[in-house]
Specification:
The complex is a heterotrimer. By secondary structure, chain B is an all-alpha fold. Helices cover 86% and strands 0% of the residues of chain B. Chain B has one domain (2-210). In chain C, the strands form three sheets. Chain C has a six-stranded mixed sheet, with helices on both faces. A four-stranded antiparallel sheet of chain C has the order 2-1-4-5, covered by helices on one side. A four-stranded antiparallel sheet of chain C has the order 12-13-11-14, sandwiched between helices. Chain C has helices at 41-48, 70-75, 92-100, 108-117, 131-143, 161-174, 189-195, 213-219, 227-232, 255-261, 272-281; strands at residues 2-12, 17-26, 30-34, 56-61, 64-65, 77-80, 149-153, 181-185, 198-203, 206-212, 221-225, 240-244, 247-252, 266-269. The chains are: A mainly alpha, B mainly alpha, C alpha/beta. At the B-C interface, helix 1 and helix 4 of B face helix 2 and helix 3 of C.
Chain lengths: 123, 213, 285
């Protein structure tokens, strides 16, 4: 599994880790029950602090993507991938709503908005 | 403890050449010019003196290499660290004396005179001087550091030396008085040396326990 | 469980005083001690190691009193002070022979492994070693009795980036064991920014802040604005500010709140160095 950390993206490192692991789980690259690297190993390999990987794993656990067992490590949770996808879909819909709101308030046309979406999606 | 002593000995290893050089420079001219008996005492004296000086060398190396700080991060009590310094100094006096004896033996063999009983007296005298010296030097260094102690020690040892010269140097004292003084000193000095050591060691421990580096 | 804890520790010198220093190093973490030269970093480390005595306060290492249990504690600590600690005339193998007899738990094979990994010439005298090599020797020496805690004073200062990176790798290896911890002082904040879990920031003998590093890096922010905008910023949002001829830099403790409150102002994330500089040089309002 690859995890790429950017120091200049402005996005906190723990968020970069969680979002990449989430997408690996959703895409099926990581399957239910797959073991994740230990927090300490991940920290060492990425040359970041343990507290950062711990935060990332805590967040993933909180969101139900992984399960951690003391002494054993962390594993991809037995969670319905459909359910995760649905949640993500809901989140995307929410963001799109905001975008539409903003567009309407300043008279941006649907065509313009769609064009923008197309460009962003292809980025 | 073994580690601390090993560090001392490996540390002064490079000083060994200097040691031999000093012995050569001091002893050879005297050995050549004087009669055998005098040079044997002189040789033991020089070697023992260099042995005593090794305690300065050791402390000095410690300060230069910052070992004096590092040693306090090691799993030893402060008393053990003090003890290692005393042990090392005693060993060095012994080694110095042994070397002196060896040199004297060689000189005696060459001149064909053999080692006389006065060698024994010289040694007792020097052991006592050695004990007295390190008993003064070690606590001083623990208290004031090597640089300041060097000056203090010179002053301290100059006083009895000058007194000695003052008393006996003008030649008015007859041999009998010197003889009598020596016979007293022979048992008094070792006693003083042992007593000094017995006071000096706890004093050093006390000083070093309070020391901050 | 904490590896180290300091509670209200004070130490007075004629020209410098450490006052009321409290912080903890949780087991399994790396604590970075930062501050400018003379801020009291080395004094703190010396206090922990009982090289000097505190006038007041309590220090515990592994939950034990650091003076009563000194020997027991020191068997389990590896220490690297800023300067080399061996006689220059010694050879690497002689240093190893000494070290072998200094620690009960010394592991010769492990020391050999480090020496090879660091490329330390076994037969050479230490005076021929570069500064980086000396530091690597000190670190190898500090690790080879398998300590639980590493205490390092400016271990990476004055070294080139390649050596610094090698050393950071060693620290990260060490911390793979959850029972291990590191307390490292440095005025080079970029190294600690990478690997430290917690940061304690000393200034003029006092702890300015002691915090989770991520909280600091992602929590603190710097608002940049002109005179007019500065007037709009509520005083409680200003931790420190610094004025230049062309505007203000404002350190704020809650970047996200500031982003919501002042959406039109430029808001940068704060690097450790920025926090350090503004805390020292900035003014409060």
């Amino acid at each position: 599994m690859d995890i790429i950390i950017s120091n200049s993206s402005g996005k906190p490192i723990y968020e970069q880790i969680t979002s990449q692991i989430k997408s690996m789980i959703i895409s099926g690259e990581l399957k239910e029950g797959d073991a994740l690297p230990s927090m300490r190993l991940l920290a060492k390999e990425l040359r970041i602090s343990v507290i950062t990987t711990k935060r990332a794993y805590d967040d993933l656990e909180r969101d139900g993507f992984i399960e951690s067992f003391t002494g054993k490590g962390s594993f991809v949770a037995q969670k319905n991938v459909e359910f995760i996808r649905e949640e993500q879909l809901k989140a995307a819909e929410e963001h799109l709503k905001n975008a539409v709101c903003a567009a309407k308030s300043s008279g941006i046309s649907r065509a313009e908005l769609e064009e923008m979406l197309r460009i962003l999606y292809e980025e | 403890m073994k580690g601390l002593l090993l560090k001392e000995i490996l540390g002064i290893k490079s000083f060994l050449k200097m040691y031999l050089f000093i012995i050569a420079v001091c002893i050879i001219p005297v050995a050549v010019s004087q009669n055998g008996s005098f040079s044997s005492g002189f040789a033991i004296g020089v070697c023992t003196f260099v042995g005593i000086m090794m305690c300065f060398v050791s402390f000095n190396y410690d300060a230069v290499s910052k070992w004096d700080k590092f040693v306090l991060t090691l799993p030893f009590t402060r008393e053990q660290i003090v003890r290692s310094k005393y042990l090392f100094s005693l060993i060095m006096i012994g080694v110095g004396m042994g070397m002196g004896l060896a040199v004297s033996a060689v000189l005696a063999a060459v001149s064909g005179t053999g080692l006389g009983p006065e060698v024994f007296f010289t040694m007792v005298f020097l052991v006592a001087c050695g004990l007295l010296s390190i008993s003064v030097i070690i606590p001083l260094i623990f208290k004031f550091g090597v640089e300041k102690s060097r000056i203090i020690v010179i002053v301290i040892f100059l006083v009895p030396f000058m007194t000695f010269i003052g008393l006996f140097g003008n030649g008015t004292v007859d041999d009998a008085a010197v003889e009598a003084a020596f016979s007293v000193l022979l048992w008094l000095l070792p006693l003083c040396g042992a007593a000094a050591l017995a006071v000096s060691y706890p004093a050093s421990v006390h000083i070093y326990r309070k020391k901050e580096v | 469980m904490n590896s180290i804890s300091l509670k209200n520790v004070s130490k007075e010198y004629r020209d410098f005083a450490l006052r009321d220093v409290s912080f903890t190093v949780p087991q399994g973490s790396i604590m970075g001690l930062i501050g400018e030269n003379g801020a009291g970093k080395t004094t703190v480390l010396k206090l922990v190691l009982n090289m000097i005595r505190a006038d007041a306060g309590r220090i515990e290492v592994f939950g034990l009193d650091h003076i009563k249990n000194e020997r027991e504690i020191k068997e389990q600590i590896g220490v690297v002070m800023e300067e080399s600690c061996f006689y220059e005339a010694l050879r690497c193998k002689e240093a190893a022979a000494i070290l072998r007899n200094l620690f009960k738990t010394w592991d010769d094979a492990l020391f050999r492994t480090y020496a090879e990994r660091f490329g330390l010439p076994w037969e050479k005298q230490l005076k021929e070693f570069s500064r980086g090599m000396k530091m690597k020797l000190s670190i190898a020496a500090a690790l080879s009795h398998r300590p639980r805690l590493l205490i390092l004073d400016e271990a990476t200062s004055g070294l080139d980036p390649v050596v610094r990176s090698e050393i950071l790798d060693v620290f990260l290896d060490f911390i793979q064991d959850e029972e291990h911890s590191i307390l490292i002082s440095s005025h080079i904040t970029s190294d600690l920014e990478k690997v430290a879990d917690y940061i304690t920031f000393l200034h003029e003998g006092r702890v300015v802040l002691s915090e989770n590093k991520d909280k600091m890096l992602y929590g603190y922010g710097i608002l940049k604005c002109g005179e007019k905008e500065f007037a709009r910023i509520a005083p409680e949002d200003v931790l420190r500010c610094r004025r230049s001829a062309f505007g203000y830099e404002v350190l704020t403790a809650d970047k996200n709140a500031a982003a919501r409150k002042y959406p039109d102002l430029t808001l940068d994330s704060a690097a450790l160095e920025d926090v350090m500089l503004l805390m020292i040089k900035g003014e409060t309002v």
